[in-house]
Amino acid sequence: MSPVVRRLLFWTPRVLGIAFAAFISIFAMDVFTAHYSLPQLLVALGMHLIPTALVVVALIVAWRWEWVGAALFFGLGVAYIVTMWGRFPLNVYFAIAGPAFLMGLLFLLGWIYRKELRARG
Predict the structure, then answer these.
(1) What is the pLDDT of residues 6-63, one digit of tens each?
(2) For 88-99, how does the pLDDT look when each residue is reduced to its tens digit (9 = 90+)?
(3) Half-sphere exposure in the Cβ direction for 4 (13 Å, CA)
(4) What span, in angstroms and rounded, lies between the C-alpha atoms of 89 and 87?
(5) What 8-state DSSP symbol labels residue 33?
(6) What is the DSSP string of the chain?
(7) In the chain, where the domains are located
């Protein structure tokens, strides 16, 4: 495996995880359009940021233990589809669960090829 491929396979799921967490945190901004008092606003914002926190926790775990992270990201994708099924058009499920499945696959590949990824050369 070439050094470029090793580097890409190592860093791609991590960078995608950070970008995905930023992407889904954007959806929490809708609480600012409602007319809440400050305590209500903070509670609503905290509730809307729970999915982001789950992604960040999965990313932190996956950074160290790739196989556990792969299972967590697959689980997050499945959980989203199961809990939200029938509420949105199909493209929404691809936009939210798709990146979670992709990161799960990339972390799984990173775990499978971990010895080659850590090799010097």
Answers:
(1) 888 899 999 999 999 999 999 999 999 888 999 999 999 999 999 999 999 999 999 9
(2) 999 999 999 999
(3) 0
(4) 7
(5) G
(6) --HHHHHHHHHHHHHHHHHHHHHHHGGGGGGGGS---HHHHHHHHHHHTHHHHHHHHHHHHHHH-HHHHHHHHHHHHHHHHHHHTTSS-HHHHHHHHHHHHHHHHHHHHHHHTHHHHH---
(7) 3-118
